[in-house]
Design goal:
GO molecular function: alpha-L-arabinofuranosidase activity; beta-glucosidase activity; carbohydrate binding; xylan 1,4-beta-xylosidase activity
Organism: Streptomyces jeddahensis
CATH class of the largest domain: Alpha Beta
Number of domains: 5
Distance between the termini: 36 Å
Protein name: Exo-alpha-(1->6)-L-arabinopyranosidase
Structural class: alpha+beta
Number of strands: 48
CATH topology of the largest domain: TIM Barrel
Family: Belongs to the glycosyl hydrolase 3 family.
Largest sheet: 8 strands, antiparallel
Pfam family, one: Glyco_hydro_3
């Protein structure tokens, strides 16, 4: 397929003019739709023609400069052809973002927690409708190319952007991405509602130094885990392109990964429009220093498979200049421009942009935005996504007839927070609102945020910190001698020592505006979250007020910065620690005491705790603390002591370590930040109008110590995710409770998979998520403990039984064979495990599969070093800037294992392609890194990490038979390929 595509691109320059003339001659004035005054009948406007014909016709009419202008995110209009401007990149992760009020659905990780692809497709379709509705107005910056879904598998719950993804499992991720993308496209690849761009390709799961860290992907992790999450949506034509990620992969920036053309375009017969992430083209020259000039960088990106550059905001000049320079210097040919421009125009044609009536979806107007149907869907999705974690002694559901007085307390009890890629809430139903709505006039609902109200007094001057009293606030100053309202602040504890301060004077948050600290913010947020502080207690009992907003960005200041008076009028500014003001903290009102008073004697206490999406973990900021904020834990304990009928709602964007609370609290419910209908959906679940059936899409760990470094991407070696994790999780992958119970019959093999009878054995209607896992008992290679292969969410009334069919094909049991670089299904016995979670297996069987036996390695053939079986002290690196992966030793004694190699009658020579600035050696050993030495190859150094030479070594007579071969490398050496002959 890729070869066909390349031939098509090469042929365009010569074939297009002829084709265009033929089309014009044949169609004449019968083609509908205005284009330019002198020729209203262009074939590219004729929907009766194929997409390729229309693209080729339009491309033939564009000048070189016009084609180059299409390669930037902001594509200008071409008036002479009647072509309007076009923009890639409307954000639509869980609703339309940044364009005004629109329906806000649960965060992506919440949508996936429904385990219901059909529902997620409906959500995607609703979002696609709203994108179209906004597009009718077409102000600058809006467009039908949407940047969603996110298919990065959530291998580490500390990733700051955890809420953007779906699951730690690639199969579940792929299923959800396909469903959401299908909804966005409308389901017909030739007639697109919107053009979704799946992101971020590839291996993007850390924010720390995200543009300079390299994600090491050994071939099995690349194929079985990372690519597996992206491939289904592309293969199903549920998305129309990929966005590359900021990070490097195996030493090469993802912006220029050859996988775009070599692999991704091979997953579909459709043309893809691939884009860079924002400002990533400039990183190639700046932070990554991978190329010397932007012309080299942009040329390499186009060659690799990028079509559209996202950089310099609306200013396309740097991009077009770089591309023109690349053309003039011979780094690019016009056919390269034609290929990229053709991909872009292909998508624009399929969107109906050039159709006379705007295409199939051209008449959708803004009445769809936040329509009653979408509000109803948002409520349904939010309820279906909630996960019941604990329900001791049937504490839930609450009975409306017996629950008249309810206290809803906690920092998230009466507010809804949104994340960076969220839309603007058209209205807010908070948890308090939702419960009040549910109880109606017969109920009594009270609330408390349960946060301390404090005042800060400078111990040296005796002056209090004060804020402005009007809506716009004023710069904070030390100018009061008493703690009046203007000197009081509500201190919200978000964990890791981070506080936000809300002024009691006007209800606005204090934030830094690059000059002063002003109480003028409605909520913490923004790209730079300037509303973060830390109160650091000193040995003398006083506090320093540390500004923590900058800590989300590295190296703004070399040292921590604090607050202190910097003006004659006492205005607070940034100072070094030694000049920081020392404050006494006076608690004007105790949040815990207020909450305890609110819950005493009530029929039920609902405590809503969790995260603030702009603070606890977000783009640019990974989490370092997986627990609840200490103040929130203390709140829950105090409320439980005051009212035994306590229900805890944990509202976060990620798994949380709940510590002792998990044992002490009778009922725990988890939700993501679930959008405008959060409160109504929560009340539906708490009072039993909706039976919870959400299931966790990630393992909930007990401690950060259960995880390796966030920068370690080798799931197989480091036992990541439920597939390999051998510890005891707090909550298992796939876990979730219901208000009813389900029984499973015996799983049976049938054509195309398996079936199992599931019965609702309880007294309530409910949904069960039936999950099928497999395990390969014996393999040449380390295999997952369990691996999700199929699932289905089913609805059952009490007493009803349904036979659930779960499709699994033999090919689905394959894994990547590094000895031959291909997928393989090994002959052997496979366990088939069906149940309610990865740890709650209800029925099992086994199947004997006749596949292949992986033969011993043939190291006489040239072997790529990256195809090792095990390793220590190495990094995967770029063999060249264009393509290929090599192995680089980070220390002396680094080693690679090549298991079960057949050296036949004996190998007498070792040959390798190596690079390295300094001299180095490769030892060939048998059995272990310190086993029998059979040869040593030496290099005097090639002077460059990209300059390779061939080195050889004679092998001793011991190099024979069936052996585990180890290559032990000297520090700094790079090894690309080798053989033992």
């Amino acid at each position: 397929m890729r070869a066909t595509r390349q031939r098509r691109a090469r042929a365009r320059r010569t074939a297009i003019p002829t084709l265009a003339l033929a089309l014009l001659a044949g169609l004449g004035a019968t083609t509908a739709g205005p284009a330019a005054a002198d020729d209203p009948a262009y074939p590219f406007r004729d929907p009766r023609l194929s997409v390729d014909q229309r693209v080729d016709d339009l491309l033939s009419r564009l000048t070189l400069d016009e084609k180059i202008s299409l390669l930037h995110q902001y594509q200008p209009a071409i008036p002479r052809l009647g072509i309007p401007s076009f923009r890639t990149g409307t954000e639509a992760l869980h609703g339309v973002a940044w364009l005004g009020k629109a329906t806000v659905f649960p965060q992506a990780v919440g949508l996936a927690s429904t385990w219901d692809p059909s529902l997620i497709e409906k959500v995607g379709s609703a979002v696609g409708d709203e994108v179209r509705g906004f597009q009718q107005e077409r102000p600058a910056g809006w467009g039908l190319n949407v940047w969603a879904p996110v298919a990065n598998p959530l291998r580490d719950p500390r990733w700051g952007r955890n809420e953007e993804g779906y699951s730690e499992d690639p199969y579940l991720t792929g299923s959800m991405a396909t469903a959401y993308g299908t909804g966005l496209t409308g389901g017909d690849p030739d007639h697109l509602k919107t053009a979704p761009t799946i992101k971020h390709f590839l291996a993007n799961n850390n924010e720390i130094r995200r543009d300079t860290t390299s994600s090491d992907l050994r071939p099995r992790v690349l194929k079985e885990y990372e690519e597996a999450a992206f491939k289904p949506a592309i293969e199903a034509d549920a998305v129309t392109g990929v966005m590359t990620s900021y990070n490097l992969v195996n030493g090469r920036p993802a912006t220029v990964t050859p996988l775009l053309n070599d692999t991704v375009r091979g997953w579909t017969d459709r043309e893809l429009l691939n884009v860079t992430d924002a400002w990533a083209p400039g990183n190639l020259v700046n932070s990554q220093k991978y190329y010397d000039t932007q012309a080299e960088a942009d040329a390499a990106a186009l060659k690799a498979g990028i079509d559209s550059f996202t950089g310099d905001d609306t200013n396309s000049a740097p991009t077009t200049t770089a591309v023109k320079n690349a053309l003039s210097s011979g780094l690019l040919e016009e056919s390269d421009i034609d290929g990229a421009a053709g991909h872009i125009l292909n998508v624009r044609v399929r969107l109906g942009e050039f159709d006379p009536d705007g295409g199939r979806y051209g008449k959708i107007d803004k009445s769809v935005v936040n329509s009653p149907a979408h509000q109803k869907l948002a409520r349904e999705a939010a309820a279906d996504a909630m996960v019941l974690l604990k329900n001791q002694n049937k504490a839930l559901p609450l009975k409306a007839s017996e629950t008249k007085e309810v206290a809803v307390v906690g920092p998230l009890a009466d507010i809804l927070y949104t994340d960076w890629y969220s839309g603007t809430l058209p209205y807010e139903v908070t948890p308090k609102d939702g419960i009040a709505n549910k109880l109606g006039s017969s109920g009594d609902v009270t609330s408390s945020e349960a946060v301390d109200r404090i005042a800060l007094k400078n111990t040296e001057t005796g002056k209090y910190v004060t804020a402005g009293t009007d809506a716009d606030g004023e710069a904070l100053k030390e100018n009061a001698t008493s703690a009046g309202t203007d000197a009081q602040f509500d201190a919200f504890d978000w964990g890791a020592g981070v506080l936000t301060l809300r002024s009691a004077a006007n209800g606005k948050y204090v934030g830094y505006n690059w000059a002063n600290f002003v109480n003028d913010q409605a909520q913490p947020g923004g790209w730079f979250v300037q509303q973060q502080f830390k109160l650091e207690k000193q040995d003398d009992g006083t506090y320093l007020l540390r500004y923590a907003g900058y800590e989300t960005r590295e190296s703004w200041w070399s040292n921590p910065v604090y607050l202190g008076p910097t003006g004659d009028d006492g205005t607070l500014g940034l100072v070094a620690k030694e000049n920081a003001a020392h404050y006494t903290k006076e608690v004007v009102r105790s949040g815990v005491d207020e909450a305890v008073a609110a819950v005493k004697g009530k029929d039920a206490a609902v405590v809503v705790v969790g995260s603030m999406p702009a603070i606890n973990g977000r783009e640019t900021t990974d989490r370092t603390d997986m627990g609840l904020a200490p103040a929130q834990e203390a709140l829950v304990k105090a409320v439980k002591a005051a009212n035994p009928n306590t229900v805890v709602v944990v509202e976060t964007s990620y798994p949380t370590t709940l510590g002792a609370l998990q044992k002490e609290i009778p009922a725990l419910l988890w939700t993501t930040h679930a959008g405008q209908e959060t409160g109504n959906a929560l009340a539906d679940v708490l009072f039993g109008d909706a039976n919870p059936a959400g299931r966790l899409t990630q393992t909930w760990y007990r401690s950060e110590s259960d995880l390796p470094s966030i920068l370690e991407y080798d799931n197989i070696k480091y036992d990541r995710t439920y597939q390999y994790f051998k510890g005891d999780p707090l909550y298992a992958f796939g876990y979730g409770l219901s208000y009813t119970t389900f029984a499973y019959g015996q799983v049976k093999a049938v054509k195309d998979g398996y079936e199992v009878a599931v019965t609702n054995t309880g007294t309530r209607a409910g949904d069960e998520v039936v999950q099928l896992y497999t395990h390969q008992r014996v393999s040449r290679d380390k295999q997952p403990l369990k691996q999700l292969k199929a699932f289905q969410r089913v609805s059952l009334k009490p007493g009803d039984t349904k036979t659930v069919k779960l499709k699994v094909a033999t090919k689905d049991l394959a894994h990547w064979d590094v000895t031959r670089s291909k997928w393989v299904v090994e002959t052997g016995t496979y366990d088939v495990l069906v149940g309610a979670s990865a740890e709650d297996i209800r029925t099992r069987t086994s199947v004997k599969v006749k596949g292949e036996t992986i033969p011993p390695r043939d190291l006489a053939k040239t072997t790529r070093a990256e195809n090792f079986d095990d390793y220590e002290g190495i990094r995967l690196v770029d063999e060249s800037k264009a393509r290929g992966t090599a192995v680089g030793a980070t220390e002396n004694g680094a080693w690679l294992k090549f298991a079960d190699a057949q050296l036949a009658a004996g190998a007498d020579e070792f040959t390798a392609r190596v690079a390295g600035v300094a001299p180095g050696t490769i030892e060939i050993r048998l059995g272990s890194p310190t086993g029998t030495l059979v040869g040593t190859a030496k290099t005097s150094g090639t002077g460059s990490t990209y300059a390779y030479e061939t080195v050889t070594a004679e092998l001793s007579a011991a190099a024979k038979g069936r052996q585990d071969v180890y290559l032990v490398l000297g520090e700094g050496l790079r090894l690309a390929t080798f053989s033992l002959r």
